[in-house]
Design goal:
single chain, 642 residues, alpha/beta, Rossmann fold, 3 domains, 22 helices, elongated
Amino acid sequence: MAVARSFARIAVNAALDFILAAVAVPLAGWLAAPAGPAPPPWAIPLGAALLVAAGVPFRLSRQHWRFAGFGDLAAVAAAATLGSALLALAALGLGPVSPSPAFPVVLAAIGTLLLAAPRIAYRQLRVRPRAPGDGAADPTLALLAGAAEDADLFLRALALDRRQGLRVIGLLAFRSRETGRRIQGQPILGALADAGAVLARLAAEERLPRMLVVVTAGLPGPDLAALVEQADRFGLVVRRAPHPTALDPAGAADAPDRPIELRPVEIDDLLNRAQVPLDREAMARLVQGRRVIVTGAGGTIGSELARQIAALGPERLMLLDNGEYALWQIDLELAERHPNVPRVAVIADVRDEARIRAVFADARPDLVFHAAALKHVPMVEANPAEGLLSNAVGTRHVADAARASGARAMVLISTDKAVNPSSVMGASKRLAEMYCQGLDIDAQTERGGMRCITVRFGNVLGSTGSVVPLFQRQLARGGPLTVTHPDMRRYFMTVREAVGLVLQATVVRLAGTPLPSGEQGGIFVLDMGEPVKIADLARQMIRLAGLRPDEDVEIRFTGLRPGEKLFEELFHGQEPPVPTGYPGLLMAAPRTADPAIVGRAMEEIAIACRGGHVRLALDQLGRLIPEFAHNAEGDAPMTGTP
């Protein structure tokens, strides 16, 4: 049925073009020779038929008049010129059409005009700018912000969406020099940096809009945050337009009635940073044709590692996790996204040494990415033995099994909480770092030994147990948002960016590139930018929800929880940061220990934990990590605002 309707529209277009061409022939004859005889009767149908036939190579009858653009009009001109030339050739055998030698040129011009005019008129009728109140009883006044090209696409899509109750009153562009110019009739009122002044002027003129629509997808986080702050000052709601590819009129022909879906600004949009250039080709060479294991594959970091690795074409991908549901989810996702990548999902606990050794011996991995860990500080404080067995002893099990099975490299995902740790979770990860650093140094003395690569970074947005999902749940309930301390700060990064840099660090290490501290077990540290104040993060999320902090939604300070500290650090005082020469990657000068000594201490800790002697295990942990200042009690609850 749909095919029949399509052919019917093509036939209607061809018939209309035939009629218009039939009008063009006598009109061109009269314009070329006003006092001369009219074209002979055979010239009109023949000329019309030739012009329609000339349009076939240019798909003239298949044009969608509603979306006619410059390319379509160029095709019309080409078809009219070709049809006129064909009629001139036919006249050589059938007789002259007009006494004027200029007739073919005039016919080409008139044909172009008559065929193009209704297309332009039809488009203008269908996409005419909406008048105030057109399409909505009470239209929402909106100000656009972003690149001129993106604003143009949005305005075109908005003109097609008759159900969208927006009326644009102006634009904010990237550069001040664009001020005063117009895009589709809409004035550019200023630059993004002038948002406050522009809104103040509109308020004074009583033309203040109710919404600010960000039309550029890749707007840097600081610029977007500044826009949101100015919009909040004047009570504007901030929304993001769909990605420009979703607004492209070329795709609208297939779904002309598709509405524009504006979405709220997310907190990760505000923390968006400039993309670090990554060597994707080198990553593909690293992974392609190799067997890869990802531990903790059901977690936030592990699942993103699995996604990015699967996209690089490994010979075989093993997903290992001790949680059945999380493992099933990522396995199902990869089955849909990358059905041609051989993979296996294995339920295993890194605390079970025999199970891990058996799995690795059977899989014989080339690369191991170890993301399995207990990461929630208060939960590990409440269950310290489990945290030590998972994070420290489990890392040893994985590293030893990887080395015994002939792996080329093992990558440990570490955390900023391992630096000057105040929690069992952080100290357990520092112990894991020490063991892996020692193994990596040993590998330098063994030809072909397994490299042990440690990558340390801070929080990832949206991870399980992180503050952003907590704030989202609290907002959904109407508040309050709970923050432990007014001065608490944390580093944040998107999970995709973090995992991309983990893969980049692996490439750099295995490429054999000389690195500062690289041969002494140095730790890669991701450049996390500036730390974010958690109280400010809470206020931003409240504003993004269209509410007012401390008025509509309370922010309540609860005091530090056991194991927490105010500031996280990426480097210990004795491991100063060293540039690597690669964007986004730093290196911590190593503080190393003999892996045999650390391994024996881990055995003692494991025996104490399994025997229920937690105090003994923590004492041993403190001897191994002198900087471990355990905040076992936290702080008393707090009240008030900063």
